[in-house]
Every structure is written in C-alpha cells, then in structure tokens.
## 1
Amino acid sequence: MASRKDQKEQLRRERIEREAAARAGERRRRMIGYGAGLALVIAALVVGVVVLSGGDGGGGGGGNRAADSNVLPDGGEAPQQSVDDLDQAVGAAGCEVTSKRATSREHTEDLAEQITYESNPPTSGKHFAAPKDDGSYETAPDVKELVHSLEHGRVVIWFKKSLPEEAQAGLQALFEEDDYHLLLAPNETDMPFDVAASVWTIDPQPNGTGRMLGCPKYSPRVFDALRTFRDEYRDNGPENVP
C-alpha cells in the first residue's frame, strides 16, 4: 500500500500536469485568436486597396455621372448586337464615318485657351496637357481634355442632352456593357448629330488621322454602329496609353 507521502506526491504531480495542460490550452486559444484577428486585418486591407484602386482597374472608373441623375439615368437597355460589320452597321443606322488627317499634336497648358477644331465633335488637334479620365459624364468635360483622351487611343461617344431619357439610359447601358478605354459625354455645343463618336488613329505618322462616326438621328440601330466603330478603332491612338 502506498504511503501517505506517496499519495500526496502523486496528487501534486497530477495537479502540476493539469495546470500545465490548462496553460498550453490557453496559449493555443490565444494564438488562434491572434491569427483570426490578423486575418481580419489583412482582409480589411485587401478590401481597402480594391476600393481605392477602383476594383479590377479594367473599366471606366472616372466620370461625374451621379446615380440619381436624369442625364444618362440607370435602368436603360441597349439592344442586342445584330450586326458586327462596321460598314453595314453604319449604313443601317443612317450614320456616316468621316476621316481627316490630323495637323497638330501640340499641347496647351491653359484650359481657358480657345481652340477651333475642324469638326464637331473634334477628332484631333491641339489639346490640353492632361487627358480626361475614362468614364461616363453627365456634365461635359472641357473638349480640349477629351481630345487628349483621343490621342491616347480612347473612344469618345457624344450625345445631345435633348435626347429622350430612354435613349440616354440606353447609351449608359451600352457604356456599362464595355467601358474599357471609353468616355461617354454630352456635347453641349451645336453638334449636328443626335449621337456621334470620335477616335484619333496613329497613321500616317507623326500626327495620325481623326475619325468621326456621325448619326444625325437617334434610333436603336445606332447602337451597332457605335459598337463596331468602337471595336474597330479603340486603342489605336498616336500615343497609346494603357
């Protein structure tokens, strides 16, 4: 039979083992808590970076269109594409594509400088030193900024603010369908078209060629003309900038 002394020693060892196991368990719980906290911090940082960078960075994160605006309102629908040939789409919509060789790629540092362009909307020429960001605009940017965007290979779609709300909502839907290197903006001058689009292509160097799609009358067929024009000439500017 074990002595009283031996029993007390056994109980002491068991107590020490239980306390050690409890301390080890507490350490494990603490480390798990630290790991979960660190994971939450990392997740928050990742979300913050994505928000600040505008998500995947592939689209038109700029612009000044408000969600509740009556210019380019939400809720529109662009007709599904039925023609993928530029000439056919332009003809069916009653539009026309014109081109004119550019004569200048000069910059101005003065946004107030008056520059006369050879077409309305413009397709090339002297422009402001900084381009306008890709995006959808309810208020027209300065045209000199948009011309610089054209030089960078962007496509600018222009529309009259007098277009019916349904037509403007459709143009916004078209923009959202593929907003890569695209700007959508009202033309607040006396543009002779309901809807138009401009590009500035690289050849012949050094100044390239300005091209314009002009649609005197809005109709659902205008959408295929805009799509095919956009796809034909996008990212082909004299100064192609990602």
Note: Residues 1-55 form one domain.
## 2
Amino acid sequence: MKVVSARTIDQALAALAGATSASRILAGGTDLVVEMESGRTRPDFVLDVGRVRELRWIRETEAGVEIGAGTTCTDIVGSSELARHADLVVESAREVGAVQIQNRATIGGNLGTASPAADLVPVLFVLGARVRLCSHAGSRELAIEDFVTGYRTTARRHDELIESIALPRRPVGERRAFRKVGTRRAQSISKVVVALALGPRGSGARIAAGSVAECTVRLRALEAAVAAGIEPGTIASAVRLALQHDVRPRDDVRSTALYRRAVLERLLTRLITDLLSD
C-alpha cells in the first residue's frame, strides 16, 4: 500500500491523479484507521490530507457560512460564526465521540465516509448544504443530497477532493433541533440521529435522519405532512404514517430495526411538538 502525505491542495490533487476505487483519503482517521485495522478496508493507496492547512477554515460570506473540509469538530464547536449561522452544526459536532475524537474528526471525513450513522450529515441535509469538490480538471458544487448516493458511496470522483461545505443563511423565524441516540454518550455510534428545521407553523419543513436507512435520508412524507399543517393531537399519528414511507431501518450489531423505528417515531413526535409550540 502506498501512502502520500500532502501539505498543500495542489500536492493532494497531484497525488489523486492516479487514484482508483480502492484508494482512500485520510483526514482525521477516526473511521478509516479503524476500518484498515479490522481488515474491512484494504486500500491500494492512502492520501493523508491531515496537514493541509488550506482545508481547515471557517468563514462568513454574504450567502451564509463556509467550512473547509479539514475543519475538525473541535474547531466547529468553538466557532462563533457557526454559532450565529449554523447552530445545529455546532450541536451535532459536540456529539461526535469524546473530546479526543472531536480533536481529530473532520467535517469532510464525516461527510465523505457517507456512513448512515454519520452525526453531522443529517444536519447538513436539513441546512441545505452544498459540497464543493476540486480536482486538477477544475471544481464543481453539488447539493448534499446529490453528493451522498448510497451506503458509504458518494458522487466524488477518484481524482477529486472535498474542498469545502457551504451553508446558506437561515430564514427568519426558523426553529431547529438535533438529537442523537446511542449507547454511551462519549463514544457511541448513532443508533438514531435526527435533525429538523421548521418555519412558522411548519412551513418549509426539512427533516433528515441517519441510521434508519442505507444512508442519511430526508423524511419527505413527514416534511409534507408538517408543512401542510397538523394539529398537536395528530402529530404522533402523522409521524407514524409518514415513517412507513420514509425509512428502512435494519438490524445490526448496535440495534434492531424495531427499536430504531420506535425511537425515531418518539423523537420526531416530541421534537415537532416542541418546535411548533409557541
């Protein structure tokens, strides 16, 4: 296995010119190193971008806020820009493992791994994130829902690098929430993770969940039900009905499909009720 450690984006893109489907990009290593040690992943080539400072930044723009792909969860938690414009990203970053993990884990790695249990990805779905990819051929942007294509798969080409994530400014009056359910707070992988953003009276509802399908999913049937207007006494039944269309939970070593569906239903009922209350 060949390993290249890049110090600049140009060096990283040059190294990726010959990458294959078996090649991997190493940022914080909180996922990839574990997979390599277990034998689950056997790369032919690893590009280490952990020292590429050009990927580690947060900045406000006229349109909202942008985050470099190498930005760590610790950076996110301490960011005043994100606290003002993307509070859910800060809240979800606080739930990414213990402090040691947060010091290493990056937003680009959390997104690029495309794990269905990724803590930050439902938030990025709800906030309408756009993903900027770069290569020697140029750069392009994708809506996050076009970027995440399935179980641990994305639209990133082998020669591309995730450069940054752009988040638009939030509408006035929007209310938001994030919740993660896991076995142990400090180290747990999500059994269920949800994010919501609702406008006044449920308008413009955006709801996403992880660990309840093969990848992070928008709960579109539920969004439609909430946006159409639901009374407090009908929220539980609306959630139950919508989830029949929106999620496909599975049994695995962390939990069962039955548990995930039940927890998701209760979480969403409670959160939607709270967000819609005066």
Note: The chain has two domains: 2-168, 175-276.
